[in-house]
Amino acid sequence: MLHLILADSELETVPEEISSDKAMKRKAQRRGRRVTELILDSNYYHKPMRKLEDSDRRGRPDIVQICILTALDSPLNRDGYLRFYVHTRHDKVIDIDPETRIPRAYNRFVGLMEQLFLTGGVPPDDPLMTLCDESLETRVEKISPEKVLAFSKDGKEDSGGRLFNSLTLEDDVCVIIGGFPHGDFLSDVKGLSDDLVSIYPETLDAVTVVNHVVQFYEKKFLDYPIFSDL
Amino acid sequence: MLHLILADSELETVPEEISSDKAMKRKAQRRGRRVTELILDSNYYHKPMRKLEDSDRRGRPDIVQICILTALDSPLNRDGYLRFYVHTRHDKVIDIDPETRIPRAYNRFVGLMEQLFLTGGVPPDDPLMTLCDESLETRVEKISPEKVLAFSKDGKEDSGGRLFNSLTLEDDVCVIIGGFPHGDFLSDVKGLSDDLVSIYPETLDAVTVVNHVVQFYEKKFLDYPIFSDL
Lengths: 230, 230
What we know:
The structure is a homodimer.
Chain A: E1 2-9, H1 22-31, H2 46-49, H3 61-73, H4 75-78, E2 82-88, E3 92-96, H5 106-119, E4 121-122, E5 129-133, H6 136-143, E6 147-156, E7 173-178, H7 189-192, E8 195-197, H8 206-221
Parallel strand pairs in A: 1-2, 1-7, 6-7, 6-8
Antiparallel strand pairs in A: 2-3, 3-5, 4-5
Helix pairs in contact in A: 3-8
C-alpha cells in the first residue's frame, strides 16, 4: 500500500489578522459565512494577503485540488493500493476515502473545503473526507510504515529501482510530497524520512511529483501489461 | 520527440442555437462580449446546454486546462522533447509553445481561451498559443510521425515495452488521447493510428492518460537516474 501525504499544503481558512478586508467581507456576506470561515485563496485575495507572513506561497487550494483529482483517478487508487492524505500548514490532516468523487469545478471544490473546515467532515451524513488536528510526524507514526520517502529537488538523484527495494505490495510505504508552490517544507521532513529523493534538478509542480511517484509504484507493483518491459 | 494530441476536446464557444439564454446574456454583458464569444462551460451553463446535441459531454475547458498544466510541467517537456496540441470538437487545433505558462486559476484560463478563440493568438503581440481550423487527420499528416498510437479503454492491453519499440528520441511519435469526459472519439482515430492501446480496463480521465503516456516515454528515453531499473 502506498500512503501519499501532501505535506505542508497551503490550504487554510482566512487568518483573523486580515479578516477586516472589505472585499473579503462582501464575499463572506454573499456566501453567508464569516470572513474567517472562507478558504484563503491567493487568486482572489492577493492584495489583503500581502500582510501575511509567507504571503507569496500561501492560499493555494488549487494545488490540493489538482493533486487529489489526479491521484484518485490513477489505476493504483482504483485497484485499492493508494491512500492519499492532505496535511496543511497549520497541522491539520484531511483523510480522503479512496472512492471520493472530488468536484472538478474549482468553485465547487473550494466550497467543499469551506464546509470541511467548518464541520470537520463532508458530506455531513456519511463523511468521505474528514479533518483533524494532527502533525505530519503524528500521522506518519500512525501509518507506521516500513519505509518513509520524501521527494524534493534537493534530494539525491537515486535509481528508481532502489525506491521500493525489498518491499512488497502489502508493505506500507509512506511518501511525502510538498503541497506548496515553492520554498521548503515547514515540517521536519528530513528527520521523518529514510531517504530524500530527487526526480529532476528543477522544482516540479506538486502534481507532477504525485503523478510520477504513483506511476513509479504502479510500474513496480501492478500487473497490467502496459507497465511491463518499459 | 513525443507529439501528444488531445483529440476531439470539448472546448468551444457557445453555439448560436442556445445564445438567447438570459443568464448567459447577462454574463456576456458583464464581460463585454457577445454570448457566442463565451467559452461553453457545463459547470455554469448546464441548463441551457440541455438543448444541445451531445450535451452530456460538451463544455469541458477544465479537462483541457488540467491536461496542458500537467503535460507542460513534466521533465519531458522541460527537456524539450514534448509537443502538446489541443484538437477540438469543431476541428480547430491549438498550438502551444512548450514554454507557455498556463494560468492555474480556472477563471483566468477560461478568459485566455475566450481571447484565443476571438483573436486566434495569445498573448496578442508575440503569441505562445495559436488557433487554426484543422482536422485531426491534417495535423497528424503535418507532423508526419514514424508511428501513431491512440489510447482508449477499447484498445489492446499491450506490453509497455512495445509502445516505442525500435524508435529513438529523435523520431517523431504521435500519441492521440481523447479530450472528452466519456464516450468515443468523433474523429476517425482508429483509421489514423498504427495501434490502439489500453492502459487499464476502465475509462480513465484524460489527464491520467496524458500523465501515463508522458511518463512511459520518459522512462524509455530520458536519462535521469529515477527512470532507471524500475
